[in-house]
Amino acid sequence: MSLTASIASNVSELIGHTDLVKINSLSEISGCSILLKCEHQNPGGSIKDRAALQLITDAIESGKLKPGMTIVEGTAGNTGIGLALVAKSLGYKMLVVMPRGQAQEKERMIALHGAELVLVDPCPFANQDHFYHTAKRIGAQEGYWWADQFENLSNYRAHYLHTGPEIWQQTQGNIDALVSVVGTGGTIAGNSHFLSSKQAGFKTWLVDPEGSGIYSFLKDGCYQSTGSSFTEGIGIMRTVENFRQAKINHAITLPDQDLVTISRLVAEHDGILLGSSSSLNVAGALYTAARMGKGKTIVTFSCDLAERSYSKLHNEEFLKERGIELNKENLEKLWACYQQDDEGKVINL
Ligand SMILES: Cc1ncc(COP(=O)(O)O)c(C=O)c1O
Description:
Layout: E1 20-22, H1 24-30, E2 33-38, H2 48-62, E3 70-74, H3 78-90, E4 93-99, H4 104-112, E5 116-120, H5 131-139, E6 144-146, H6 154-170, E7 177-180, H7 186-198, E8 203-209, H8 213-220, H9 241-244, E9 250-254, H10 256-270, H11 276-292, E10 297-302, H12 316-321, H13 331-340, E11 347-348
Parallel strand pairs: 2-10, 3-4, 3-6, 4-5, 7-8, 7-10, 8-9
Antiparallel strand pairs: 1-2, 9-11
The structure holds pyridoxal-5'-phosphate (PLP).
Family: Belongs to the cysteine synthase/cystathionine beta-synthase family.
Cofactor: pyridoxal 5'-phosphate
GO molecular function: cysteine synthase activity; pyridoxal phosphate binding
């Protein structure tokens, strides 16, 4: 037997090539193959490592990011962790601007990865103190490079060039639908673009929390948010360049109660612990199975480590305060509910 050396030359090289696992309980009840792309396996623990790597390597290649410069970004957390990790491994300094009130877990990880952390009060996007504008202002100073994950298309390219082709290869081209939440839109855009170019009839389903702005935008053309979901890193109130690249066929919203229910069911039946946006993805995948019918292969993402949702999704007191029941439905009831659901909820684009 010959052994071949397989040693990454730095931690950034460990990003990507994540596994795809079947969620057996949901696949059995729906008659579909519901598959989970394990993005929590990335070294920074989230799907945003991919965007971080592409943003930085493209900027180095184009000459915008030069040795000795500091990378700056405004983020709800995971992109900050990914950028801090890639920055450190490639020898750059990192400054993260983050709104207060995000899970403490993410703040700690950014600091542990050696980045400087600037916390700002959460405020509407129009306010110049918003984390996005604060990062942009700092990034305009001498010696800084602003990653700009919302408008910089390296984010989308990470998924078009890597995640999409991985899914295509792992499913051997046997895939009918993709289900994804939206933060910057990089994930849904890159994957939907690549996979729909490979297969006629391929469908992309967007899932967002109940009352989300994007859903109202896709429905009526204006951003109107009526929800107060506890999910983090998703839900935007403006059309950004990365989201603009997405090829979306259908959009739905689901309440926080559903993502809590599905997270408990999948943990219990399949031994898979999900974070909050991932739970929404998985609930969305089950909903998609109910709409598409038996025999389909549906892929969605485990966007980050469940630990990152410990203080909210996995905190019983927090959930009770928000009126969320911990064991509301069993799988049969949730499935029956999705099968009977009003078709009018789905936006067809
Ligand atoms: C936990 C989590 N899930 C999903 C997303 C959405 O990914 P994207 O920005 O590619 O739309 C993010 C983005 O930050 C995130 O942090």
